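Annex B.
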Amino acid sequence: MAANDSTQFQIAAVLGPDPGPFETLISHLMSTANEQRSQAEALFNLCKQTQPDALALKLAHLLQSSPHVEARAMAAILLRKQLTRDDSYIWPQLAPTTQAAVKSLLLASVQREESKSISKKLCDTVSELASGILPEGGWPDLLPFMFQCVTSETPRLQESALLMFAQLSQYIGETLIPHLTTLHSVFLQCLSSSVHADVRIAALGAAINFIQCLSSPADRDRFQDLLPAMMQTLTEALNSGQESTAQEALELLIELAGTEPKFLRRQLADVVGSMLQIAEAEGLDEGTRHLAIEFVITLAEARERAPGMMRKLPQFIGRLFAILMKMLLDIEDDPAWHNAESEDEDAGETSNYSVGQECLDRLSISLGGNTIVPVASELLPAYLAAPEWQKHHAALITLAQIAEGCSKVMIKNLEQVLNMVLSSFQDPHPRVRWAAINAIGQLSTDLGPDLQHQYHQRVLPALASSMDDFQNPRVQAHAASAVLNFSENCTPDILTPYLDGIVSKLLVLLQNGKQMVQEGALTALASVADSSQENFQKYYDAVMPYLKAILVNATDKSNRMLRAKSMECISLVGMAVGKDKFREDAKQVMDVLMSLQGSNLETDDPTTSYMLQAWARLCKCLGQDFLPYMSVVMPPLLQSAQLKPDVTITSADSDDEIDESDDESIETITLGDKRIGIKTSVLEEKATACNMLCCYADELKEGFYPWIDQVAPTLVPLLKFYFHEEVRKAAVSAMPELLRSAKLAVEKGQAQGRDESYVKQLSDYIIPALVEALHKEPETEICASMLDSLNECIQISGRLMDESQVRLVVDEIKQVITASSTRKRERAERAKAEDFDAEEGELLKEENEQEEEVFDQIGDCLGTLIKTFGASFLPFFDELSSYITPMWGKDKTAEERRIAICIFDDVAEQCKEASLKYYDTYLPFLLEASNDENSDVRQAAVYGIGVCAEFGGAVFRPLVGEALSRLNFVIRHPNALHSDNVMAYDNAVSALGKICQFHRDSIDAAQVVPAWLSCLPIKSDLIEAKVVHDQLCSMVERADMELLGPNNQYLPKIVAVFAEVLCAGKDLATEQTASRMINLLRQLQQTLPPQALASTCVFALTLMLLGLFVLIRLSLRFLTTAIVFVRDIDTCQIRINLWAPTTMPSGAPTTMPSGAPTTMPSRAPTTTPRRAPTTTPSRAPTVAACRAPTIALSQAPQRLVGSHRRPSFCPICGARTEH
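Importin N-terminal domain-containing protein: predicted structure tokens.
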């Protein structure tokens, strides 16, 4: 009680009429003595909790009246914190009288304050408060006050008002529309007439912020004539030597270039010319010149707002490119570089060099190869021909930096590019040789796999030769690292012939004394093993002892990265050679890893991250044999996955700097008026852990069950982890794996007595969370991944989903369609811009392909829902029809049309009679689309015709004639069997067969059925092939007269089809169908007269003898029967003509009434599916996904590579994704 009384006494004293105790409290809050400061903070917080009104008034009075500058500054900071809308916000708790007094005191302080730094803090405080209450009309006196100050004769007040205008523009911009004329004249006056640089800079900031907040282009245009005065502010600052002011101006102009580039368009040449003049002025500070370059680069990158605008200034692009290449010359031959110690990897590089390198990368990505390559081609030869090593080095670095953005154009000139680089492998200067290797590494990534396929015979020997440069270990190490980049885009057949030489050289490097060389060799070995897979087995016994020795012996702190890389290499080698070869060593390795995991590793030890990935690879290699180690692996893995983001937020205008001194992994970004510091190493560890959890769930299936209850609550919230994309992606990929693991555990009785209700509980947790995350996801690519995972979750959950969850999914699909369509419309508007060009069109096309991916996933989700719930889903389909029907339009892309058709195909196939009500609406579209110019659309449409023929009954009957005509067009097309068209052809043949089967009475069967037979066998769509050949089998079994023809004249063709199908093994028929075919052939042998049998069996025997070896792929029973059949035929003493034709007999009808297909030549089977499957990020990380980050081969920042469209068949196994 006494302590409480004492505290109350302190509060009363601090907040009493005597200002002394309160000023003392404020000074203690600034104390460097921790205990004194902590006590002051505790007392301050008590004052805020118990008497917020008194505290706010005390701070406001102190701000106005204290004679001590430090106290006033601290009062401004503290008051701002209390008035910021976060956990400290006390404004709503204050009495109206207090609020009025605080506002009045703040404005009075603005008028009276003489200190520049405190004036800025005051303006921050006023703006912070005003941003929260102005929109609701909570400070009517403020705007008149600001206008009064900005039009006063006092520069200090003008600056304060302009600072507040700048900060409040986004909140009050629209309310200032009636005052545009006044503001225009005020800004112009302050920019052009004020003699005070601070006022001009404040006016520049206010004008730029205000221009950005105006939504109407017409309103923005009214301020166009300010631009010369805005640029004059920059020019005067430079001419008067005030470079810090000039840098402030440049930063503001960069912001304008990024957000409103079109505002600069009318005077673009003058503005860009001025910036390049600054960049070329060697007498200016580097920081000033770099900002001028940043302005031009920012304009080039402003694609969404001003597409193609900068490409209209080729003369300036050439100048900028020359400036950037010249900056690369600012490099010294530092002896530390030659020492090849890791910490000296940037030795000799200057800030000029680093900025030039980064900007070349950004410029090439933003402008593209058609613009950049011609410019580079003018400069590079002169640099390479110059005597100075720095110019050779600069040319090679340039090639590496522009490769990503110019890849399409550089691939067309690959030999020329490669000659430039490879000729420098023999340069006398080691830094040039290093740069040549660096370029090869980057080109291997950006121009692969073309470079690997065409020039492996030149590149790999050059890299191998560089590994012999023992006088320059850094060159050796980089050559080894470049092998990683080369092999990542390399197939085993290319790499295998070089393995003997590469592996032997890398083993020599492993024994080198330089750690950097050893690390490079480990990385290269890991990559080579990964790329060559089982071909690496012959080197295993030679390599593994070295790797284990490093793992065991590299225990010093200086060797931590070496040990970490040995883990990576061992686990990748193990995966390459397989469990049987690796098993014994794996146990020893895992014992070492367990020992390391039990030790106290330092927080910055790379072992932690590498070990997480190594464990996951070992799991992939060992499969279920890894389960005993999971109890060791999971606790630290979960701990890493649960790491909280290390984020520091300060005001962008604050004097408080985020401490980056002791950690290079902190990235700082500015968002609005906030500066955010993020420790990226924490995020990367978290992302790695989340990926590994997904990997374990995928590999162990039901074996992962014991950890689901810990992993699901960890990963589900991370679906909305917006600090790091990779974390979200991993969480998204893991969702179906967790559900699958739970379902399999329940089905196999390994769920500790839990039943299906557990799977439903998990599904009820995961699916709504996925839907909610999808609703908020800002990245289109991740949206597509979320839809893919959602589709898998629906497949796994099936009818465990209740109606409310289906409603949730359907409503979100509507929202996704709407959002995607909106983005596409916005891009279409960008295409109308006056500067829009072909290069920009290519970029837009790539962005729209991502949208098509989203639509593709939507189609798959709806297909799964339709298959799962059948006719009960139709009420939801009715709601969705207004979103789907527009996708049939000719103004839509082929992919959208295909997806819409596939959705209807699913409805017709799964809902059968219940779907007949949609036929009148959709069948006309379907018939028209069957002759679409796009083969994928045709394929989906003719498949749908087949479905409607099968299930449409009387509703379809009136359209049989038109359907025959449409199918005939597809089948008879001259290029029907081209690889692009053959899938549509096969589906058209299948649809024709269904019309023959289900609408025989509506066609001229004597003509149509033989015409259908003449198209068989079909070989490309393997799913439809099995259906069609089973149908043929059934028709023969029931002795279909139209199929057999008069006097069995079509029997030779039928037997020939059977033989060809049987020779294809299991590809073209199920085992059951194949068995039936062989039985039919035996029956034919037993029942047909010898003369008929002879004419028939010539065809069959020809193909069967040629393909007999293929029959081994069938069961022994099939093979035995076939051999007996051949033997029995031989006893009939039939003369065998190996070149007997397999066409229909003379006189047999080979056309439909309207002219149908004749016999089609045989085709090499492909495996393209009917509908383009979804682009799915692999469910469990593959080797690459589990791997430690690739060694960077250049100093450029990490770059995001756009996603590629996937093929229309499974890239793993070639199997078709079920429609």
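The mean pLDDT is 84. DSSP finds 56 helices and three strands in the chain. Further annotation is deferred to the next reporting cycle.
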